[in-house]
Write a structure and sequence with these properties.
The protein is an alpha/beta fold and about 290 residues long. About 30% of the residues lie in helices and about 30% in strands. The chain has 2 domains: about 1-140 and about 280-294, Rossmann fold (3-Layer(aba) Sandwich); about 145-275, Rossmann fold, CATH 3.40.50.2020. Helix 4 packs parallel to helix 5. The structure holds ribose-5-phosphate. Ribose-5-phosphate binds near residues 165, 214 and 219.
């Protein structure tokens, strides 16, 4: 049993090897003068290999490193599991406009083509479209661990989901925190601008609002929800995102909207937030998968 850590494993490879008791090796990468990458792996003849590689920015490079690694192993008598803590391209899960490619479907086909038999990922944008992968999939929900980290941090917490797609995530975080939750319905236009379609109540007055979301990318969604919370009398607003993509300008946007603290996980590296390690949850997912297979 071997854990192979990619350049975007964010310490989760180390965590998994410790928790599962597997050996750990690092994938060696180098670049050709034109920028193309190559990978080098240790000699693996048989057994199980868990490749750990998140596919956050630079997405194509990180994804390609994973594909090259799996392809280099493929063919030997080895069973490959890919741990992809942040799964890129999952947001384009259908054709929003005629002619658009469905990127998550392409990614799933590529993973399959390089011999990956099982996949473990954390809070993918939508789990339905992952199913055309064909192999075994374990989806880890990290919001409970994130919420556990926040226990006792706030005096009067209330969880807010910034859109209806996040209701289950927020409900489960609120359950851990033992507090109320409410949610908003949002609209996103063709240019990516968001607006509130409907607010679903909740007593915000004097509360410490924690906006829980799967992804914080441009920060537009959190900004909108934070402004709404303050307009209803919130005492403070913080943001908890499983995947802190935080593109340029997002931190500023959150700050300007009065977001006081940002929490996240190590599926994506983001130094300016308080993050929790999801290695144990992923290890538990791998164990579950092994139990189901045997
Ligand atoms: C959307 O459905 C997701 O759950 C997030 O709310 C969204 O990806 C956040 O993106 P942004 O930070 O760019 O508003």
């Amino acid at each position: 049993m071997l854990v192979l850590g990619g350049t975007a494993s964010n310490g989760i490879d180390i965590g998994l090897s410790r928790v599962l008791g597997y050996d750990l090796e690092k994938i060696e990468t180098s670049k050709f003068p034109d920028g193309e990458i190559k990978v080098r792996i240790p000699e693996i003849k048989e057994g199980k290999v868990v490749i750990v590689q998140s596919t956050h920015y630079p997405q194509e490079k990180n994804l390609f490193e994973l594909l090259l690694t799996a392809d280099a192993i493929k063919g030997s008598n080895v069973e490959i599991t890919a741990v992809i803590p942040y799964l890129a391209y999952a947001r384009q899960n259908r054709s929003f406009y005629p002619g658009e490619g469905i990127s998550i479907s392409t990614v799933m086909s590529l993973l399959k083509a390089v011999g990956i038999k099982s996949l473990v990922t954390v809070n993918p944008h939508r789990s339905g479209p992952l199913m055309n992968f064909g192999g075994k999939i374990e989806v880890i929900r990290a919001e409970r661990r994130l919420a556990q980290h926040l226990m006792g941090v706030f005096t009067r917490p209330m969880v807010l989901a910034p859109d209806s797609g996040g209701v289950e995530l927020a409900r489960s975080a609120a359950e851990v925190l033992g507090c109320e939750f409410t949610y908003l319905d949002k609209n996103r236009d063709a240019y990516g601008n968001v607006s509130i379609k409907e607010a679903h109540g909740g007593d915000f007055a004097g509360k410490d609002i924690i906006i829980f979301d799967d992804i914080i990318s441009s920060g537009g969604t959190i900004e909108l929800a934070a402004r709404h919370a303050y307009s209803k009398g919130a005492a403070s607003v913080s943001a908890a995102g499983v995947h802190l993509i935080m593109v340029d300008g997002a931190a500023e946007r959150l700050k300007n909207a009065g977001v006081q603290r940002i929490f996240g996980t190590n599926t994506v590296p983001y130094e300016k937030a308080e993050t929790v390690d999801v290695s144990e949850d992923i290890a538990e997912g791998i164990r579950r998968m092994e139990r189901d297979i045997s």
